[in-house]
Amino acid sequence: MAELYDLVIIGGGPGGYNCAIRAGQLGLKVACVEKGETLGGTCLNVGCIPSKALLHASEVYEGATHSYGALGIKTTGVELDLAQMMAGKAKTVEDLTKGIAFLFKKNKVDHLIGQGRIAGQGKVEVLLSGDKKSVLDTKNIVIATGSEVTPLPGVEIDEERIVSSTGALSLKAVPKSMVVIGAGVIGLELGSVWRRLGAKVSVVEFLPRIMPGSDAEIAKQAQRIFKKQGFEFHLSTKVTGIEKLKSKLKLSMEPAKGGDVQTLDADVVLVCIGRRPFTQGLGLEEMGVKADPRGFIETEHWKTSAPGIWAIGDCTHGPMLAHKAEDEGVACAEAIAGKAAHVNYGVIPGVVYTSPEIAWVGRSEEELREAGIEYRKGSFPFTANSRARANHQTQGFVKVLADAKTDEILGVHMLGPNVSEMIGEAALAMEFRAASEDIARTCHAHPTLSEALRQAAMGVEGWTMQM
Q1: Under 8 Å between Cβ of 265 and 249
Q2: What stretches of 183-290 adopt beta strand conformation (E)?
Q3: Phi/psi at 254 (nearest 5 deg)?
Q4: Are 144 and 8 in contact (CB under 8 A)?
Q5: Catalytic one of 301, 342, 392, 446
Q6: 91, 267, 443, 455: least buried by Cβ within 10 Å?
Q7: Phi, psi of 398 (to 5 degrees)
């Protein structure tokens, strides 16, 4: 008689593996089916983690070649060893994927390598290596298949000269010139890596601004900083084609509203216009699982329209972020186990790991105005923060938005050093529905960068104290 699982998860990315581990901790019998050879999904293998490894390494390299002199550190003979940098990235990924595999064993999660699909009510078929198949019987099925790169019509990605984010993480040499199509998070981060290592980077964006969806004031100042760093921006511009020549790529573009065609030459073109849900070939239609026209699975508290089938992460609606998927994975496992489960979708932070970093949580000024919500604003520049000045990292500012009547924090937006670590305090405050005064009257260590958040919160009521 076939073994009966409490749940089988299709997909071993941040949503899937956290769901599996939490289910195991709760005593459920669980299996996780992942088509890749290693766990971790896009995020760990070809996304968040390797990109952050290269961002850190490239920032250190740029500091050694351009910035350390201002700190009284003379450097000579600094050379780039790209092969070693890539090896360090790979080692980081390898160690973390092994860590997930260890947690699976610790929590008695069965791990199957193969392509999974729903083969009927309570049945998951797994295509294993050598065309072998296995069928798992289960009470619940969780779809955690994530997302894939959105292609640009008429452009073929070869992952050598025309690359997606995957290829951009493994270039064998620093290109002299790179064109990035898309001024979102991925484009700005990976563009930053290769600019620091020596490439001339041009960014082409269809919309009239960078980082669509982020706070406009933050995006405007960030663009000015990136331009000073050497980025070239072509906004309100659409790409119409890429011609592959022997020695270069010739990219054709025109104004988004139509107009004369212009060209850009490049050694490498990075296409990062977004991601789309990966939901094909899973047997969803046959089971009556509803999805929208773009392929996102419709859910209510992670339940799909089909009994016993759940969905989490990038293949569902909401921000395509690893930490959103992680929270959903944990909550979904707890719901299946009969426990209370909750994800506060209004308090999911976003981060861009450029230099300076960008981070936010909650609503932007544009969203508050559109919703007709009266708010007050406090802001504080890093030029007035003692630690930032001591560290020679004074670019950017922190902004706190609070309800004009109740003082509840509605949004926090940051541009500056280490704000990816600082945004957690703002998220925690919002989770407890804190007022801006709560942060303003909370003692922060001096001198620290986090004082900028406190000073911005003070600014909501007009009592900011400089330095």
Answers
A1: yes
A2: 200-204, 232-234, 237-244, 249-255, 262-266, 268-271, 275-277
A3: -150, 160
A4: no
A5: 446
A6: 443
A7: -120, 140
As a 3-state breakdown, the chain gives helix, strand, coil percent values, each rounded to 5, of 35, 25, 40
* Strand runs labelled E in 245-327: 249-255, 262-266, 268-271, 275-277, 309-311
The CATH topology of domain 4-149+276-343 is FAD/NAD(P)-binding domain (3.50.50)
Backbone angles phi, psi at 288, to 5 degrees: 80, 25
| Inter-residue contact 223 to 215 (CB < 8 Å) | no
Of 88, 85, 153, 103, whose CA–CA distance to 329 is shortest? 103
- pLDDT tens, the chain, 467 aa long: 568 999 999 999 999 999 999 999 999 999 999 999 999 999 999 999 999 999 999 999 999 999 999 999 999 999 999 999 999 999 999 999 999 999 999 999 999 999 999 999 999 999 998 889 999 999 999 999 999 999 999 999 999 999 999 999 999 999 999 999 999 999 999 999 999 999 999 999 999 999 998 999 999 999 999 999 999 999 999 999 999 999 999 999 999 999 999 999 999 999 999 999 999 999 999 999 999 999 999 999 999 999 999 999 999 999 999 999 999 999 999 999 999 999 999 999 999 999 999 999 999 999 999 999 999 999 999 999 999 999 999 999 999 999 999 999 999 999 999 999 999 999 999 999 999 999 999 999 999 999 999 999 999 999 999 75
- DSSP per-residue letters across 138-203: EEEEEE---EEEPPPTT----SSSEE-HHHHTS-SS--SEEEEE--SHHHHHHHHHHHHTT-EEEE
Q: How far apart are CA 101 and CA 34, in angstroms?
A: 12
Neighbours of 267 (CB within 10 A): 18
Strand duo 133-143 + 123-127: pairing: antiparallel
Helices (H) and strands (E) in the chain, counts: 13, 22
Q: Could you give the 3-state DSSP secondary structure of residue 67? A: helix
**In what helix (H) or strand (E) does residue 351 lie, and over which residues does it extend?**
strand 350-352
The SS3 call for residue 245 is: coil
Question: Could you say which of 3.30.70.120, 3.30.390.30, 3.90.226.10, 3.40.50.300 is the CATH number of the domain covering 347-460?
Answer: 3.30.390.30
Is 234 among the residues known to form the active site?
Answer: no
The domains of the chain are located at 4-149+276-343, 162-273, 347-460
H or E stretch at 226? helix 216-229
CB 91 within 8 A of CB 84: no
24: left (phi over 0), alpha (psi -120 to 50) or beta: alpha
